[in-house]
Structures are given as structure tokens and as C-alpha cells.
Design a protein that fits this description.
This protein is mainly alpha-helical and 115 residues long. It has a 3-stranded antiparallel β-sheet with strand order 1-3-2. It is elongated. The two termini are 29 Å apart.
């Protein structure tokens, strides 16, 4: 699981990939106020986790943003809601009404993924 700082950096990569590592250093300095050494340290950690690859100074993802956050969402449901997606949705929407668009999108998603 990524920490908040790593997640911001990962999002920066996903939004700009493929990206040359030198350009990534410039963006991280501009957007995150990081030094070059910090950028390369965090990039190496994310590469070691199998999320990104830095090959010949070109940074690309091995896992898409949707895949990564989808895995994290499933882990959250498993760990905190005993695997109950309805339990998660009940907690997520507690005290708030879903819009008509959200209800329609959820119904479509359920229909597309039902057994």
C-alpha cells in the first residue's frame, strides 16, 4: 500500500507516462517541491514494489492507476468490512443520498459483473 506522499508521486507518473526520468524530476520539483535525490529514491521504491519501471531513463507503469486502486479498494473491503461490498457501500453512503446518476451507474456495474 502506498503512503500519501508516494500516492501523489504515483499519480504524477500515471498522469504523464511515459515520461523521461529527467522530466519526472522537474515535475516532482515543481509539483511536490522535491529534490532530485528524493524523486529517485521514491521512484526506486515504487519500481521495487512492481508498480513502475524505469528503463533507459523512461518511466512507465507496470500496473495502471485503476488496477492499483482497485486492489486497494478490494483489500479495504476484505479487511474492514469482512469482504462485504454491501456493507462497505452502506458505510460509504451513510447519511448521504446517492444521485440518480450514481444509482444508474451502480446498477449497470452490477449487471455487467453479475454471475
Amino acid at each position: 500500500m502506498l503512503g500519501i506522499v508516494e500516492a501523489h508521486f504515483a499519480d504524477l507518473i500515471w498522469e504523464n507516462e511515459p515520461i523521461r526520468s529527467g522530466e519526472l524530476v522537474r515535475l516532482a520539483e515543481e509539483k511536490l517541491e522535491w529534490k532530485k535525490s528524493t524523486t529517485y529514491t521514491v521512484l526506486r521504491k515504487l519500481c521495487d514494489k512492481g508498480i513502475f519501471r524505469n528503463q533507459e531513463s523512461l518511466v512507465t507503469s507496470l500496473v495502471s492507476r485503476n488496477q492499483y486502486y482497485g486492489r486497494q479498494g478490494r483489500r479495504l473491503v476484505e479487511e474492514k468490512f469482512e469482504g462485504s461490498l454491501p456493507g462497505f457501500l452502506a458505510a460509504f453512503t451513510e447519511g448521504e443520498r446517492l444521485s440518480t446518476e450514481d444509482v444508474a451507474a451502480l446498477k449497470k456495474l452490477i449487471e455487467e459483473n453479475a454471475e
